[in-house]
Design goal:
The protein is of the alpha/beta class. It is built from 15 helices and 20 strands. Bound molecules: FE2/S2 (inorganic) cluster (FES). FE2/S2 (inorganic) cluster binds next to loops.
Length: about 500
């Protein structure tokens, strides 16, 4: 019998990006029934799905083999208490189904006896009794026959214990809670723009209302919810996790940059590392209790210690899903005081850097279209942030990254890009080198024209002004609507 699952769960079960499955729904290859997909239809579309190939068993086996891999266990499995609660609820559901089945079975058997009695009273002369009795016996035989188990049902049951599925209202966004993550951590890892402040249970900004399902506390919190709020089902998302396999929350998410407050945080330098000649990685870390809320693709002003007015604006090169670790790619430039200090050896691990922001509107739109990212030189920084955010969202049907370097050693993160390309079927990476950014943009446009301009896609373009202007002009000339192009000048 078909089992119905959400698109999110369906994508997890067959191991494809949610966007790829949604595209097949739009193409009419698979039908939705009230937003749900039947496991029969899924198996027809992905007949090769097998439990052994899904990675689920692998994950469980891995855990058993690496008995001392505590961190791995924490990432994959919830705490013992949460696991026990989810198992308890699943067992309750199973017991309920079993009880109903036993009652139906008893009812069918007693009806059969009654029919036999009526048939006997009629002297076995009424063919209608014979026909109904035959139908009953055949039906019972079919219902009690042993059939091969539906692999997707088994996988779905396993996933329900290992991870919980959360739906956010009114947006309809969904995410999965895995391991020891709180609702806030899991939502952020999935790329949602949830409201929060401290991340440690003291500010109350992450309040959400639980409208169905159960939660469990996963961290102590100081913020006092009123009795009224508690009665209405409010909890702190940073201090709770999902205790049931399905959960619905009510909360507002940030719509765009205007919903993100400007913050000032004193961070410390975690690492400084040369990436290429003339390009350094600056890794800043916020205090555990004061993280930075930002959107992928935004910028920060970085300033040195009080009394020192060395500061400069740089795009963040990391994903908002890790709001403690902020990465920046800094180029050697004489007009950038921070870069001068960095390349001069005046900034090292443990030093303080004050960050102020975020700023900028080069952010990811919610779109069902394939995503095309085009970067030149350090334009790769905001593009990488957007790309990592898009990977967390897992909603794009496909992604392509084009990276132009105006110096031979300019693809300083090429290994990472190739790793994405190898790991993801729906991701393509192409590298270009030309010392003239505008000519390089033209070459990139030619390559895109070969296989992308015919596809309705959303384009994100970042780099020096000459590159951005040239590529955007080519995109517009090829008929890409202006509304599907976002661009950012990164000098
Ligand atoms: S983010 Fe501050 S209490 Fe949750």
């Amino acid at each position: 019998m078909a089992h119905w699952v959400t698109i999110w769960r369906a994508a997890q079960l067959v191991g494809v990006p949610r966007g790829a499955l949604q595209q097949r729904v739009r193409a009419g290859e698979i039908e939705l029934n009230e937003g749900l997909v039947s496991t029969d239809a899924l198996l027809a579309l992905y007949p090769r799905v097998r439990l052994e190939e899904s990675g689920l068993l692998e994950r469980v086996v891995q855990i058993r083999d690496e008995a001392f891999g505590r961190r791995l266990r924490e990432r994959v499995l919830p705490s013992q208490e949460v696991l026990a609660q989810r198992l308890f609820r699943q067992s309750q559901e199973l017991a309920d189904v079993q009880r109903h089945l036993q009652r139906y079975h008893a009812l069918v058997l007693s009806l059969r006896e009654r029919l036999r009695g009526l048939d006997a009273e009629a002297g076995g002369s009424d063919p209608r009794f014979t026909e109904v009795l035959r139908q009953l016996n055949d039906g019972l035989a079919r219902a009690l026959a042993t059939e091969p188990v539906d692999v997707l049902d088994v996988m779905d049951d396993l996933l329900k214990v290992m991870s919980a599925q959360v739906t956010v209202r009114p947006s309809g966004h969904q995410f999965t809670v895995e391991g020891h993550d709180s609702l806030l951590q899991a939502g952020m890892k999935a790329g949602l723009k949830l409201n929060y402040g401290c991340g440690n249970g003291s500010c109350g900004m992450c309040k959400v209302r639980v409208t169905s399902g159960q939660v469990a506390r996963c961290m102590p919190s100081d913020y006092p919810l009123s009795e009224n709020e508690k009665a209405q089902g409010y909890v702190l998302a940073c201090a709770h996790t999902a205790a049931s396999s399905e959960l619905t929350l009510e909360t507002l998410e940030a719509g765009g940059p205007e919903d993100i407050p400007v913050q000032t945080i004193v961070t410390s330098v975690r690492a400084v590392r040369a990436l290429a000649k003339g390009t350094m990685l600056l890794h800043l870390q916020t205090p555990r209790s004061h993280r930075l809320r930002f959107l992928a693709g935004q910028w920060l002003t970085l300033g040195l210690a009080a009394g020192d007015d060395t500061h400069a604006m740089h795009p963040i090169a990391s994903c908002p899903c890790d709001d403690r670790n902020l990465l920046f790619y800094i180029a050697r430039r004489d007009d950038d005081a921070l870069a001068v200090r960095l390349f001069g050896g005046g900034l090292k691990a443990g030093d303080s850097v004050t960050v102020h922001g975020p700023l900028g509107r080069f952010v990811l739109d919610e779109t069902p279209l394939p995503l095309v990212f085009a970067a030149c030189d350090l334009g790769f920084a905001p593009v990488k942030s957007l790309l990592e955010h898009a990977l967390s969202l897992d909603a794009a049907p496909s992604m392509a990254l084009f990276w132009l370097a105006t110096r031979p050693d300019g693809h300083f993160m090429a290994n990472q890009c190739r790793a994405w390309s190898e790991a993801l079927d729906t991701f393509e990476y192409s590298a270009f080198t030309h010392e003239d950014a505008a000519i390089g943009a033209g070459q990139m446009a030619t390559a895109m024209r070969a296989d992308l301009f015919g596809i309705d896609s959303a384009f994100y373009v970042a780099g020096p002004a000459a590159f951005v202007e040239a590529l955007c002009a080519d995109l517009l000339a090829a008929g890409v609507p202006q509304a599907q192009i976002r661009s950012e000048v990164v000098p």
